[in-house]
Amino acid sequence: MPDNILPLRAKAPDTEKITVNLGYVDLGQVDLMVQEGFYSNRTDFIRTAIRNQLDRHADVLKQSTLRHSLDLGLRNFSRADLEAVQRAGEMLQINVLGLATIAADVTPELARATIASVAVLGALHATPAVKAALADRMR
User: Fold this and answer.
1) Ramachandran region of residue 76, left (φ > 0), alpha (ψ -120 to 50) or beta?
2) Do 70 and 98 belong together in one domain?
3) Are residue 51 and residue 80 in the same domain, yes or no?
4) How many C-beta atoms lie closer than 10 Å to residue 91's C-beta?
5) Distance between CA atoms of 126 and 114, rounded to whole angstroms?
6) Does one domain contain both 114 and 74?
7) What is the model's pLDDT at position 4?
8) Which domain does 78 fall in, by range?
9) Which of 13, 54, 69, 96 lies 20 to 30 A from 4 at CA?
10) Structural domain tally of the chain?
11) pLDDT along the chain (139 residues), means of 10
12) If you write DSSP's letter for every residue of 73-124 in order, what string do you get?
């Protein structure tokens, strides 16, 4: 490989897979909407339905986000971030609505020494060892 070409980092997925169980009639109606061309596929229908409900309840969601002091969106905690928290003698209260990521090079010991609590509505990406170390601090 030439010196001026660097390998690309693997991109983290920007979605989380969930499973939804539907009754046969509901599923059939979704399939009919797809067949009639209103939606490109089942996933498109489900995403649209979810977004419509979130839009419908936007005011309640905004108030709840403020009331619970949630960071909205993507929040990454690097090893350097946690080491700075440790040097300052502080502990983090992680409250995220979206995606919280604890870097892969964060040790379980560093996580326990710097993270007092974890509340994530959405997804938490961390190594299994870090998740296990913080299990008693997750709400």
Assistant:
1) beta
2) yes
3) no
4) 14
5) 15
6) yes
7) 62
8) 62-137
9) 13
10) 2
11) 59 79 96 97 96 97 93 95 97 96 98 97 96 96
12) EEEEE-HHHHHHHHHTT--EEEEEEEEEEE-TT--HHHHHHHEEEEEEEEEE
